[in-house]
Structure formats: structure tokens, C-alpha cells
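subagent[fold] <- orchestrator: predict structure for attached chain, return C-alpha cells only, no commentary.
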Amino acid sequence: MRAVGARERRRKAEALAGRIEQHLELRKRLQRALRDATSRSVTILVAGHYCHDTILGNGSVHRALGGTAAYAPAILDALGVPYEVVAKVGADFLYAAAVPREPIVVPGPTTSFVGDYRGAERTERVDAVTPPIEPGDLRGKWDIGVAGAIAGEVPLRTLRRLREISRIVIADAQSIVREISPRGEVILRPPAAGVLEAIDVLKASHKEAEVLDVPALRKKLILLVTDGPRGCTIFRGKSEVHVAAYPARERDPTGAGDCFLAGLAVGLSRGLPLEAAARIGAWCGARAVEHVGVPRLTAEEARAGSELP
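subagent[fold] -> orchestrator:
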């Protein structure tokens, strides 16, 4: 009887050990699956500051939240694309309750941007600048990294870090060609040496493209030059493709380029061909100009954007 009891206890102990081993293996598989799902779910990282925007029109002054970090997420949220934002603000930041992701708060003022539309051409001024985003502020791995600086807050060292952690790096030309004078004037200069090697896709306005060496650039990376209602042109190697703009009832052009950039990022994150991704960008840019400030797309608009192209 004692021998039978010993065998029974041994059998139960072995069965318990087996169940524990199975439980541990199952837990490991679940943890791996969770890590994989998390890494797949967050696909786009936007790097650039939130800012205080002041828009001067004929007889009007509009103050609002600004920056690629504010405009691009409005599109990403509407299209249901997971993302994160790395942005810095000062203690005087006015729109903490309105931003999609919590910023890093640092000493000093929040970047303050003034767009003046009262003349024949828009003029720009920066009244305050928040310290830059540093390489150590960027963590994780991303399908798409978006450099959307307002006033040089994504310096070369940080752009290189974005390159390290992103499969594709998209940059707005304002991130690399803007120089702020001591009086706050926005001056466009050719990009510094080494910057272009960190970028896969560069989006530039028609005006920004004037300070770029387009023939040389198209050999190194993909360049998209936007020109408002005239659409955009994609330069890649020897090819040149025009993508038409979508119709829009313009109310405020502020942020249209940021929203174009976000739509482009969405298309590329889905693995779409470049021209198809640019069409999503064009659609998002058209929707942006129909709003004053950060756009809030309707369910119908979001659905239409999701079904493109």
C-alpha cells in the first residue's frame, strides 16, 4: 500500500510540474504576442513641438494650438492609425487639455509662431523658441518617423536618432531649411550638410523648394513638392509624377502641409505605392484648409479618407 501511495504522490507531483511548465510556457507566449501586438499597433512617431499659433488676417486675429505635432495627429486619429508624439512646451503652454499626447514640459517659453496673411504673400515670424528635442527623447521602434519641426527643434543629432529607430523617415522641409533671425524672421536656407542622408521622403512647399537643389535631391531621396490647389509633384530619380489636388472650400490654409504629411505617412505605413500615399496626403490637405485651426474631421470624411485610394 505504501508503494502504491508513493507512486500516486509521484504521479501527481509530475502532473503538477507539467501543468506549471505548460502555464509558464503559455504565459511566455502570451507575453511575446502582447509585445508583438504592441509593436505593430503603434506605427508612426511624430517629432516636433506644439506651439502657440497667431494667425493675422484682414481684420482678424486668431490664436490657437499649432505645430505639426498638433495637426498631423488630427488626421492620424481620424484615419484610425496608431501613433505617438514627442513634443516639448514651456510652462506657459496654453493648450494642455487640447493636445493628443502629453508634451515634455521644460523651462522657458513655448514656441510661438505668427503667420501674417494680410499681404500678397504670407509672412512668418517666431516670437519664442522652446529647447530642441534631443536624441534621448526618442525611444522605441517605428514604421514611420515624421520630422515636423517648426523652428529647428529636430536638429541633425535628433534626426539621426529618428533614422535609427524608423523604417522610413519622412520630413517636412520646414524642419531643415528654416532659420530664425535674431528678430524672429523666418529665413529659408539650404539644408546643412549631413541632413539629407537621414531622410527617405522630403515634403517641401513650392517656396521651400526654391532653396533646394532639386536635381541633386531627386537622386538621393524622394521629394514631393506641394503647390496648394495645383497639387503636388513627386520627384524620384528620373521620374516625375503629378498628383492633383482635391477640391476644397478654403477657410484657413494653416496646417495643410502638416495634414498632407500625415496622410502621406498613413499611406506609406499601409504599404501603399508612393503615388497612392500622396493622394491620401492631398485629400487630407484639402480637408485641413476647410477648417480654422486643427481640423476635426466628420465620420463621413474619415471614412472617405480611409477608403482612399
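orchestrator: received. Logging for downstream: The chain has a mean pLDDT of 86. The longest strand covers residues 51-57.
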